[in-house]
Amino acid sequence: MNTLAMDIGGTKFTLAAFEGARIVRRESRLTDGAGGRDWMLAQLREISFAWQAEMEFHNCGIGFGGPVNYRAQRIALSTHVGGWQAFELSAWVKSELGIPAVMDNDANVGGLGEAVHGAGAGYDPLLYMTISTGIGGGIAIPHVRNPILLHVDRPFVALFLLQHPVDFDSIDGEPVHALFFVVSSSIPVHLRILAELGFVLRDPELRSLLKQRATDDEILGRIGDLAVATTGQHPIARLS
Fold first, then answer.
1. Most buried one in 25, 109, 224, 231, CB count within 10 A?
2. What is d(CA 18, CA 5) in angstroms, rounded to the nearest whole number?
3. How far apart are the C-alpha atoms of 230 and 152, rounded to whole Å?
4. Could you tell me the CATH number of the domain that includes residue 33?
5. Residue 15 and residue 103 in one domain
6. How many Cα atoms within 13 Å fall on the side-chain side of residue 22?
7. How far is the C-alpha of 103 from the C-alpha of 240, rounded, in Å?
8. What are the residues whose beta carbons fall under 8 Å from the beta carbon of 143, sequence distance 6 or more?
């Protein structure tokens, strides 16, 4: 059985072709955030059509970098590229490529893959953690692997918008103009904040506000909107 796999992220996207459990083709490209959903769909179509000329696919698995309504097979919210909200990507794959498809959040898919075929095979229970490929786009979070742990009543995140961007050897080579420092009381809290911060920083509008060095109210307002859209609660309310 041949399977087409898609991993759609904000920094890059990858397609792979499997014959059984063996990868026979793989291609990764950088994501064009400004191109939106239509650009990404054109890329998926181009690569898939080229491969379908040489092999037949019986099913397709999709990992999407954002919240997914699994039951409806619909993207719940666009987080890294505009235009994805409420889009039925599995139905699009079936219609455009003629391949039955199943989609879930990329972290869920990654955890399932590790549990069945990877380092977690044979372990029960299994804890899987995923950390984004990188922020990029002029944004950096120092001390990701060596967290700042202090005896604080509540964790906090400090944002510094730099007047003069600096070279942080980032994944896309772009000088950093926005620095986020995370101060936590424990490693589990630190990891939770990193996950939430990585999620909101996929948002094109928020990244644009950071690059423009927008006002505190504009930046915090956008973060609040993203939190309400995904959790139903404003982040400030969660800390009170």
1. 109
2. 8
3. 27
4. 3.30.420.40
5. yes
6. 2
7. 36
8. 181, 182
Q: What is the predicted pLDDT for the residue at 239?
A: 41
What pLDDT was estimated at residue 144? 58
Mean pLDDT by 10 residues, the chain (240 residues): 93 92 93 90 97 97 91 83 90 98 92 88 81 68 68 88 79 81 86 83 91 93 84 53
The pLDDT of residue 210 is 94
- Distance CA(54)–CA(111), nearest Å, equals 30
Task: Give the model's pLDDT for residue 237.
Answer: 46
Instruction: Give the residue numbers spanning the domain of 154.
Output: 139-239
Residue 6 and residue 87 in one domain: yes
What's the domain count of the chain? 2
Position 129 in a domain:
no
Other beta carbons less than 10 A from residue 139's beta carbon: 22
In-domain check, residue 145: yes
Confidence (pLDDT) at 198: 81
> Does pTM surpass 0.70?
no
In Å, how far are 10, 30, 190, 237 from 111, measured between CA atoms?
19, 23, 20, 31
Closest by Cα among 217, 213, 212, 145 to 182: 145
Residue 88 inside a domain? The answer is yes
